[in-house]
Amino acid sequence: MRIVLVGPPGAGKGTQAAFLAKNLSIPHISTGDLFRANISQGTELGLRAKSYMDAGQLVPDEVTIGMARDRMQQPDAAGGFLLDGFPRNVAQAEALDEMLREADMKIDAVLDLEVPEEEVVKRIAGRRICRNDSAHVFHVTYNPPAAEGVCDVCGGGLYQRDDDHEGTVRRRLEVYHTQTEPIIDYYKAQGLVTTVSAMGKVAVVTKRAMSALPGS
Hints:
By secondary structure, the protein is of the alpha/beta class. 47% of the residues lie in helices and 15% in strands. It has 9 helices and 8 strands. The strands form 2 sheets. The chain has a 5-stranded parallel β-sheet with strand order 2-3-1-4-8, with helices on both faces. A hairpin with a 6-residue loop joins strand 5 and strand 6. Helix 1 (13-24) packs across helix 9. The radius of gyration is 18 Å and the shape is globular. The mean pLDDT is 95.
């Protein structure tokens, strides 16, 4: 099965993608992982991406598409994959469709994780990260530390990342609405989109998503 996962920042795409990919025994392909792998391996596409990133510029679609094409041609993706963060705009969605057509394949389902905008802001702006270990993540509402501003695990100080400030989150949402959200209509025209509420516990959202897939 070939699946595209869509949703605003803070919808839990990464978490849901990992669970869905495991349940379906298909690779989870995220844009972030593609960039990190290509840059660390020093591939031609990775070097091109790094040059744009170092200059503070957006990586062109053609570079991202090239990385995605290479990854989807790996043996573990022969039986399907779950895309998270790609395609990011309609041009990338069209390029993906063309790539798959050339290989006599197609997208089977698009899951649109839906969460109210104010909940997105609350989820992201409330995150606090440990200065000693970024894997230690807390939330002022949903997972508060025992002592305010102190990591329960190691005692390190907690801080709010610049990307997590409310103003930045709202700007990220604007970018999502203008650039990425249009791909939902693009895929709706193909009859592929199912909207899944991303509210509630992770396991409950995963169950909803699994139930939304064709043949479930």
